[in-house]
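Marked as duplicate of an earlier ticket. Keeping the data here for the record.
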Amino acid sequence: MILISATDHYGSVMNGPFDYTTYLNTIKADGFNIIRVKSGTFTESGDDNNTMAVLPGKLITPYARSSEPSYINGGNKFDLSKWDDNYFKRLKDVVGVAKQRGVFVNFIFFTPFFDNEQFEVTPWNEQNHINGPAPVKQSDFYTLDKSGGFLALQEALIKKVLKELKDADNVLYEITYESGKQWVAPDWENYMNNVLQSSLRENGSKNLTVQNCGSKRSLVPTPFAEAAILNRVFTYPEVMAASWQFNRVGGVGETGFAPSSNDEVRMRAWQFLHAGAGMYVHMDHCFRVSNPTGDCDMSPAQALFGGGKIQRHELGILKGYFEKLDFINMAPDTSFILSSLPPFIIAYTMVNKGKEYSIYLSRELETKDGQPVKQSLAKLPATNLTVALPEGNYLAELLNPKDLTVLQTKKLSHRGGNLTLKCPKLKEEDVVIHISKQ
């Protein structure tokens, strides 16, 4: 199974007015099979520009509201000594509705407070709750030695969620989002992983767990033994190789802070899956309380965050393409490509040697120093691609990734060794070459 989706900004449970049933109907209709959800201990101030930016008075968290007014984003403060039954009812319903539609829920317990604005609205901030532990510094919540009474509160939340969802086999648990050492102490994360794994055993649950490996090009020296998926955000295709090194699924949990035109969103997804990612979640900022069907077009109006029906449609085509591959027996490998590619043109491949090859060609999306690349396949003359294949009869198809239109088909009788594929002059920004043994 390949997990692919374009989802809301983590708020389908915490954002009370958000119509998660309509949203999940859209996820299913687009052919996707995963959403990502945060617990509600981390939120953003509300203006409905995404589902985690909860409107005043509408935040739902694991903690009940108290009778004391003046939570900074509307309504009464939270009582950290009491669970909110309505929250857990909503959580279980979101998970249940998702399961009915064949959708997994990647549930994320904790998120670092990256700036003061986010810290101001968390229920854990001393100004926003009653009956809570003694205050700790914003940077100390995810440490063993400085988090004070919040350590027990965090442990209790993990145990409570796992107990409530003990029969839900479509949940993938993730301890923390973006676990860089500057925000999350490794010994704290290891401790919470032990809490998570012991709670799964106590409840007789066999859910898979996800380990966050940070962002960009950050790597985890030694993954948790139990982590099935090594997940990163705002990352690069070449980083997926580290997951293969550890024999784990590589995941991309969030896109953004990068050029997000329709073409760029499509290219990025095709690159990642051909680099070996087994989970790819594109962040779609069209999903909001006012727009649970995601009917808008973020490209190119908001350059660094994508979204919209065109992008979701093309990601659905990618998912369908991969589901027709024997991807379980394929691995990233470009060693069989013998041609030198033009500057700023890059190839990513998935290969089952001697049986099936998927070669994705596009421009690089940015230079090493983060500058946009102007080159494209459509600007190049007709070119050849030389590959090394074992002896056999093959079918080679040149496809347009936008809609899988067949641009060229060739039947090949090959004696083994080097084989030159003659590609026509292209109008497309990117192409995929599928070669299968007959």
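See parent ticket for discussion. DSSP finds eight helices and 19 strands in the chain.
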